[in-house]
Amino acid sequence: MSPEVVGGLGIILLLVLILLNVSVGLSLFLVGFLGVSLLTDWSVGLAQLGTAAFGTANAYSLSVIPLFILMGMFMSNTGLGQDLFKAVDKWLGHTRGGLAIATIGASSIFAAISGSTNATTATMARIAIPEMDNYKYKSSLSTAAVAAGGTLGILIPPSVILILYGALTQEPIGPLLIAGIVPGILLALVFMITINIQVRLKPDIAPRALESAKFNEKIRSLATIWPFLLIFMVSIGGIYLGVFTPTEAGGIGAIGAFFVTLITRKLTWSKLLSSLDDTIRLSVMIFLILIGASIFGRFLALSQIPMKLTSFVGSLDVSPFVILALILFVYLILGMFMEGIAIMVLTLPIVYPMVTQLGFDGLWFGIILVMVINIGVLTPPLGLSVYIISGVVKDVPIQKIFRGVAPMVVVMVFFTILLIIFPEIVTYLPSLTRS
User: Fold this and answer.
1) Fewer Cβ close by (within 10 Å): the C or N end of the chain?
2) Angle at Cα 412 formed by Cα 407 and Cα 418, nearest 5°?
3) How many other C-beta atoms are found inside a 10 Å radius of the C-beta of residue 131?
4) Model pTM?
5) Average pLDDT, the chain
6) Which residues contact 168 (CB under 8 A, 6 or more apart)?
């Protein structure tokens, strides 16, 4: 068989294994090893297992992953999310649909520390939905606010998905994290405006505006927000100003989160052990995926599929935006059936060279890809964020949650188009760090 045929069969086998719920890392290991061995020699395949594992685990740039994860675990496991929601509610809760809007605001701040859609969604579902139920919010609105807010977890830095994107494409991680700031803040504002419009058009889905908190209460509430803002400003601000590298920022953020939770007396021995355990488990899973992706990427390179596809796409006499639209449409379909990390490791070795060959900025494409993945976590049949909420709020039918998030999905589609039309929204801040 030709290398191209072997490569195509390998991609199909990988997709089948992932759809059969075989772990992504193991699937990549198996297919990559078999593919390299068939195209070269079994001894070469065995050698790849060792060199890929050592090369990935030894990469200094990837040490940022467990550090940022540990930072997020300290903040999420110690109950600071509930204090954060109450503080944001003091400032935004008095508006119509204020608790839903406050959920978006709290999710934005929490996402800036957790770096995870799943962690942000699960935390806010447990905190915000019961509170909105007490004030007679319709479940379609309360669950939609939590689901939409959760998508900010992989857009606003530190984002584990963006770090993985950088590792898979060799895009610099620092500028990638900075690139998510403006789109993340703007998307949060767009979600808030969408909720405000919804409650004006359908007054029955939210109660009348609550009484505004007194000014001194609002000021006092900032005492629970400062840990999040301080850690974010120090870690991400340090990257932006060029004071330290992303890895150093992760270390400072993790140490800062440890001392903040210690000073505020939120960190107990059991929560410390739980945070360390969660960090180890998630980090090992991600590193196994990266090692497997390295072996699989070597297999694809030997198959020559990425090079030939890139050459073919470059020879097409159509607008690059037409090809980009087709690529994003495929990602949208994949997002309905697969988890974001699996999509990235499966497609980026092929898609990234094509996108850069078309003249698009690889950093900008990373943010666009995250947006499309975010749409996928809200759409059936997979809709991971929706299933997380359904697991927390068991009395709300999952079909109702999907209907509730539909306006948010529409908004996210238009926001993605906006980022395509005006790429400077993504690239402006990173360009300042590069200059």
Assistant:
1) C
2) 130
3) 18
4) 0.84
5) 85
6) 290, 293, 297, 344, 345, 348, 349, 352
